[in-house]
Write a structure and sequence with these properties.
This protein is mainly alpha-helical. The chain has two domains: about 130 residues, CDP-alcohol phosphotransferase transmembrane (TM) domain (Four Helix Bundle (Hemerythrin (Met), subunit A), Up-down Bundle), CATH 1.20.120; about 140 residues. It is built from 13 helices and no strands. Helix 3 packs antiparallel against helix 4 and helix 6 packs parallel to helix 13. The mean pLDDT is about 95. InterPro entries: CDP-OH_P_trans, CDP-OH_PTrfase_TM_dom. Keywords: Membrane, Transmembrane, Transmembrane helix. This is CDP-alcohol phosphatidyltransferase.
Length: about 300
């Protein structure tokens, strides 16, 4: 297989990929994934390594030393390159799993938990009161919701353009049934992970009620697959929303984090998360709900789309 073709197949889709990732992280991730595939290293192993490097990056943001902070920035870039590589490796080797998806999501949470804690301690040494922890927690909670909804909307888009095999879209009803089948006595670790992922999925569904009704409608109406004209129309309407999922994800927040560290005002990161990225999150959710309501109405009132 030609390298360019293999690289393209390692991507999720051009619709959902961010330009910085296409230019920078995905090419690096592809090279890492290629080496890992030859060595037999699994995607989950790459993810776990990224967790340690990302947490180290957060710790290195604590000292008020630009040189040390710069090492932390490099570590965070490496961690995200590995985070890109694990997904590309999973697609290249067809070694995708729900555990891998959960670990991938937890990796970013660990990185940014370390970053938030480091900035809180750093800010207190700079003269902030303990109130900085309120802003650190508020920014952390905001980050969790922003990342969860951005990931969910991407998976929804991938479901429409690639189907179930190209998407990792889950629903809480199926997850709840799987969770109930596990035993705390015999499957403690699996059940613990399943409980966390179930809560995560329910959070995504809570913030997208119209989307849930829309998904239920299409699964009921089109059990054998979506009509091609329906896929094309949804993709056209939904693709512009993907840029908002990118804005509230890794690259934008990290570019500004690096800026705040360069000017020695790391505390600004919390306020950027709360007062800049949260309004974008709200707008993204409102727009996605609008698209869902539009197509739900078309399905229920017109005969434009016929089942296969």
């Amino acid at each position: 297989m030609e390298t360019s073709t293999a690289f393209q197949q390692s991507l999720k889709s051009n619709d959902t990929e961010e330009q910085i990732d296409i230019w920078f992280y995905r090419p690096i991730g592809f090279r890492i994934a290629t080496v890992c595939a030859r060595l037999g290293i699994t995607p989950n192993t790459v993810t776990i390594i990224s967790i340690f490097i990302g947490v180290a990056a957060g710790i290195l943001f604590y000292p008020q030393s630009l040189a040390i902070n710069a090492v932390g920035m490099l570590c965070l870039v490496i961690a995200n390159s590995l985070d890109s590589a694990d997904g590309q490796l999973a697609r290249m080797t067809n070694n995708k799993s729900r555990l891998g998806r959960i670990l991938d999501g937890l990796a970013g949470d660990f990185w940014f938990a370390a970053i938030h804690i480091a900035i809180c301690f750093r800010s207190m040494e700079e003269g902030w009161s303990s109130w900085i922890w309120f802003w650190g927690v508020a920014a952390g909670a905001s980050h969790v919701v922003q990342s969860a909804m951005a990931d969910y909307y991407r998976q929804v888009h991938l479901f429409f353009i690639k189907g179930s095999n190209g998407s990792e879209l889950d629903n809480s009803a199926d997850l709840a049934r799987e969770y109930e089948q596990l035993s705390w006595r015999h499957d403690f670790f699996k059940k613990l992970i399943a409980r966390g992922y179930l809560n995560y999925t329910r959070q995504q569904e809570f913030f997208s009620p119209r989307l849930q009704r829309f998904l239920h409608e299409i699964k009921t109406r089109f059990p054998n697959g979506l009509p091609l004209n329906f896929i094309a129309d949804f993709r056209t309407a939904n693709k512009p929303l993907m840029k908002y999922t990118n804005i509230v994800q890794f690259n934008t927040r990290v570019l500004f984090l690096f800026l705040w560290l360069l000017i020695d005002q790391a505390w600004l990161y919390f306020f950027f998360d709360v007062f800049v990225l949260n309004p974008i999150l709200v707008y993204m959710c409102v727009r996605q709900e609008g698209v869902s309501a539009h197509f739900l109405n078309k399905l229920q009132t017109t005969g434009e789309y016929e089942a296969l």
